[in-house]
Structures are given as C-alpha cells and as structure tokens.
From TrEMBL:
The keyword Disulfide bond does not apply. This is Glutamate dehydrogenase. Belongs to the Glu/Leu/Phe/Val dehydrogenases family. NAD(+) binds at T198, N229. Residues 191-422 form the Glutamate/phenylalanine/leucine/valine/L-tryptophan dehydrogenase C-terminal domain. Pfam families: ELFV_dehydrog (PF00208), ELFV_dehydrog_N (PF02812). PANTHER family: GLUTAMATE DEHYDROGENASE, GLUTAMATE DEHYDROGENASE 1, MITOCHONDRIAL.
Length: 424
C-alpha cells in the first residue's frame, strides 16, 4: 500500500500568507473591529479525508483530500475541486478564502469554499480518477449540498469529474440532485457558457483594463500562461477581439510566435496530443519564465499560484496583468509591480466569470429551466463590467492598486452582511 505524501508547504511562497497580507492591508484601510477580523480570517470548517483507492494494477494508494468552507455568511459555500500534486491544506485554505472575496466582488449570494486532492491526473487512468472522485464525494456527503456547499471544476478537473460527483451524491440521496455541483456536462443540467465563462471574464476584464490604459485591442499583444480551461478560452476570446496572442504555454513549456500564435490550431493540436502542447509546431519554444517577461501589452497568468514573484517581477514588461489563475502573483511581487506602474486586474475580479456562470447554472437547476447562451453571456458580461467599474472606482477613492481595492469591496460586503444578520 502506498500513501501519497502531501506536497511540502513552501515557506517563501505560501499562498495563504500571500492572501493574508493583502487581506491585512485592506482591513487596515477599512478599519474593521478585531472580532470581525477573526470572523473573516478563520475558516468556518475544514475537512481532511484519507481516500484508499484501488489502482489499475491492483495496488491500493491512499490519497489525501480536503474541503475548506472559508465562509457561508453570504450564502452556501462555492468553489472548485483541484486535482494536482501540489495540493495541501494551506493552498486549499487560501483558495477557499479567495472564493469568499470573489463571490462578494461580483455580488453573488455565495460564501467561499474550495476542495483539493493531492494526486497527479496526468499519471492516472480515467477509471482511477473516477474511483477517486466518487470516494471523495462519499467522504464529503455531509459537507456538500445545494444549500450548503456547491463544488465546481478547478485545475485538473472538468465536466467529467463533476458528472461523477453529481451521480454519486444523487445515488446517496436517492434522487437526482443536479444543483449540488456546477460545471456539469450540458446533458446533466450544465449551463451553456460555463466552459468558457472564466476565460470570457478574463477577456472582458482585459478589455476594460485596456480601455483605462487607452490601449487599442486591435494593436495590442498578449502572452497567456496555462492552456487549460481558463488560458485557452481567454486566448481564443482575446484573439477574437483583435488582440495578437504572441505566446501560450502549458506544463510542457512555452511557445512563441512574433506574428501571433494560431490559437484554434493550438487547441486542436492539444486535444489530439493527450491534452498537451508538447512539440507544438509553428512556434519557437521558450521557457515559462521567459513567457512572463515578454514585451507584450497584456500578460495573462492562467496556470497556478506564485508564478510571478519578487525574483521575476522586476523583469516584467507587460503594461497590464490580468490574473486568470488564483493567486498567480505572490505578495512579495506586489510593490515591485505597482512601482513599475503595471495595471493588475486581480484574480478575485478577473477570473470571477466562472463562478458567475456557475451561479447561473445553479439558478437554472433550481428553477428547472434552461437559459440561452445569449442570456448567459449578456448577464455575466454585465456583472463582470459592473464589478470592474466598482473596483476601479474604489481604487481611486482609497488611492490603492486594484487588488487591494477588490479586497476592500469584498471585505466590506461580507462584514456588513454579517452585521445585518445580527451575528455581532
Ligand atoms: N476552471 C475554472 O473555471 C477556474 C479556474 N481558475 C483558476 O485558473 C487556473 C487554471 O485553472 P484551469 O484552467 O481550470 O486548469 P486546467 O487544469 O484546465 O489547466 C491548467 C493549465 O496550466 C498548465 N500548467 C500547470 N502547471 C504549469 C506551470 N507550472 N507552468 C505553466 N503551465 C502550467 C497546465 O498544463 C494546463 O495547461 C487555476 O489557478 C484555477 O484555480 C479560476 C477561476 C475559475
Ligand atoms: O465555478 C465555481 O463555482 C468556482 C470556480 C472556482 O473554483 C474559482 O473561481 O476559483
């Protein structure tokens, strides 16, 4: 029997510490009480489970899974499930808190939650993934629920995994409960537009930012790190709006073309190549670090945390960073980036398009009705644009970067709600 050791927590770039540093700055400016500080800081619940799984070769491996409900003050917990070798409890705690702030920034009635299992989906068969997801669901039967805590996809998971979760949960409850999870396949009650929703929100945030910087999208260039759900859709949609995407990347490395990457071609190539861009033709291979320091207008980190840090931040040349990933910039890089005058559209705003359309999916499941793609897109575009404007205005009012402004908007909303509920 083997046990997969959770990844060691890196002191230097702990995402929980990065999140807390920004939280502390915003709290200082807002001036909330000590009691409220701890109410907002300490997660409402965190659950860790051991999951023994029979592997295809007959051996048994024990995986460690987590689900953290950071807050349910605004509504049921909401947030994805990550399958990645680097998953650990601190990472999941940070991701859950970011979900609380994100839902508050776009003003949807959810608290924040996140789940994760330390595993490597690239080395697992579909059968092993299915057994793992079903075992995790069973272990979380009392945690999940359409009014309690509603999961969704994150890194390493997608509609297929959400379908297994819905099926396992529904079997245990003795009825079909499709509102327990979002990001499902359409046939199971998934929403039109959810697959591309996070990338679409990144695109609308990028266009809103370009407008502030007076950058013409038809003359703009971009580099996108990560070519999964978020990165590939963001790249397609930016390209459709006239932006030349000069570089893309995934775990196999980065690919650069001075005249622009053929994005549709790259997606086809990835889908026929076991999900990776390895050996992608028609582009020069560079490293993921080189991609981050390219001379482009817009940089979209859409892979994982802390890729932008105090070591590479001094070399970033982009005029704007639009954070598709959660926590791609460590707190140690904030001052360097701000002093360079780079406009950062922070994760809890820029990647909120996904949870916004997840909310629409949950609403549709609960009323038993399907919206058209046009309705989904129009409503989510409006929510993203309103949230951008509110955060931008707050950044001017408090004279702070958009990241701290987004935390201010979120913390104010959650703490006001708590007070009105009479909690304190
Ligand atoms: N899927 C969603 O709706 C949402 C995802 N996010 C965040 O966006 C980020 C990406 O998520 P997804 O696109 O869903 O995941 P995914 O699993 O679909 O894709 C991840 C991509 O990142 C690449 N990658 C992994 N490690 C890398 C590294 N070290 N350097 C460069 N590329 C690397 C992978 O090869 C893959 O192309 C995560 O931070 C996630 O939390 C945020 C909001 C919603
Ligand atoms: O769609 C959702 O409910 C959550 C997506 C997510 O995990 C995220 O925004 O980081």
């Amino acid at each position: 029997m083997t046990y997969i050791e959770p990844a060691p927590i890196k002191d230097k770039e702990n995402p929980l510490e990065s999140m807390m540093q920004r939280f502390d700055k915003a709290v200082e400016l807002l001036g909330i009480s000590d009691e409220m500080y701890y109410i907002l800081k300490v997660p409402a619940r965190q659950v860790t489970v051991g999951l023994p799984i029979t592997m295809d070769n007959g051996s048994i491996r024990v995986f460690e899974g987590h689900r953290v409900l950071h807050s349910n003050i605004l509504g049921p917990g909401k947030g994805g499930i990550r399958f990645d070798p680097d998953v650990n409890l601190d990472e999941v705690r940070a991701l859950a808190a970011w979900m609380t702030w994100k839902c508050a920034v776009v003003d949807i009635p959810y608290g924040g939650a996140k789940g994760g299992i330390a595993c490597n989906p690239r080395e697992m068969s579909a059968g092993e993934m299915e057994r793992l997801m079903r075992a995790y669901t069973v272990a979380m039967l009392d945690v999940f629920g359409p009014d309690r805590d509603i999961p969704a996809p994150d890194m390493g998971t997608g509609p297929r995994e959400m379908a297994w979760l819905m099926d396992e949960y529904s079997k245990a409850k003795g009825m079909t409960v499709n509102a327990v999870v979002t990001g499902k396949p359409l046939v199971l009650g998934g929403s039109l537009g959810r697959t591309e929703a996070t990338g679409r929100g990144v695109m609308t945030s990028a266009l809103a930012g370009m407008d502030k910087l007076k950058i013409n999208p038809y003359k703009a260039t971009a580099a996108v790190q990560g070519f999964g759900n978020v990165g590939s859709h963001a790249a397609v949609l930016l390209h459709e709006r006239g932006v030349m995407v000069k570089a893309i990347s995934d775990i196999s490395g980065a690919y650069y073309n001075e005249n622009g990457i053929d994005i549709e071609g790259a997606i086809k190539y990835r889908d026929l190549n076991k999900g990776t861009l390895e050996n992608f033709p028609g582009a020069e291979k560079i490293t993921n670090d080189e991609l981050l320091t390219l001379d482009v207008d817009v940089l979209v980190p859409a892979a994982k945390e802390d890729v932008i840090n105090n070591e590479n931040a001094p070399y970033i040349k982009a005029k704007m960073i639009v954070e598709g990933a959660n926590g791609p910039t460590s707190a140690s890089a904030d001052d360097i980036i701000n002093n360079k005058g780079i406009l950062v559209v922070p994760d809890i705003l820029a990647n909120a398009g996904g949870v916004t359309v997840s909310y629409f999916e949950w609403v549709q499941n609960r009323i038993g009705y399907k919206w058209t793609l046009d309705r989904v897109n129009r409503r989510s575009d409006r929510i993203m644009k309103d949230a951008f404007d509110k955060v931008f205005l707050t950044s001017q009012q408090f004279n702070v970067p958009m990241r701290i402004a987004a935390y201010i908007v979120a913390i104010k909303k959650v703490s006001d709600t708590y007070k009105f509920r009479g909690g304190y």
